[in-house]
Write a structure and sequence with these properties.
This protein has about 160 residues and is α/β, with parallel strands linked by helices. It contains 7 helices and 5 strands, in the order αββααβαβαβαα. Strands 2-1-3-4-5 form a 5-stranded mixed sheet.
Length: about 160
């Protein structure tokens, strides 16, 4: 995938992440694009706002896209490496590609997705890293409530690999 296109699509997810943060939620955003580049759906993590632990950003974007005949050729763009729940969604519905803003603060299931034929595009976007590190520092209780407290697939928000 062309890096310029991936970064342009990431901007949609980042805008969603910032909306989520402004609403008092976890700043993770996502967007689902069709094979032809059409934006099908966008969303942000709403588990705090809605009191719904299943409303992750990828889930919100997927739901906003509505029913598609096929997800072959689609691209899920997310500001943070997808957790196992969202990685399962990608596999279950045959989403072909995942563009990841960053995986420093959380390393989800993207290696597993790659092993199962999903194209992974890692952007290592400094803005995404800063957004999550600041959130983890300022709201550790929200981070640890869901994603941050699930074992070895996370770090403290400061991986030291800068």
């Amino acid at each position: 995938m062309d890096q310029a296109q991936a970064r342009a699509w990431l901007a949609t997810a980042v805008a969603e992440a910032r909306t989520g943060l402004a609403e008092g939620g976890v700043p993770i955003g996502a967007a689902l694009y069709g094979a032809d580049g059409t934006l099908l759906g966008r969303g942000h993590n709403r588990r705090v706002q809605d009191g719904d632990p299943s409303m992750h950003a990828e889930t919100a974007a997927f739901r906003a896209a509505g029913r598609q005949r096929s997800y072959r050729g689609t691209t899920m763009v997310t500001t943070l490496s997808p957790c196992w729940y969202c990685s399962g969604l990608v596999r279950q519905f045959g989403i072909s590609r995942v563009v990841i803003g960053e995986s420093r603060t959380f390393r989800g299931g993207h290696d597993w997705l790659a092993e199962h034929g999903v194209e992974i595009v890692q952007l290592d976007d400094p803005g995404c890293v800063t957004l999550m590190r600041d959130f983890i520092r300022d709201h550790p209780e929200l981070w640890n409530e869901d994603i941050g407290d699930i074992g070895d697939s996370r770090d403290s928000g400061d991986s030291g690999d800068d």
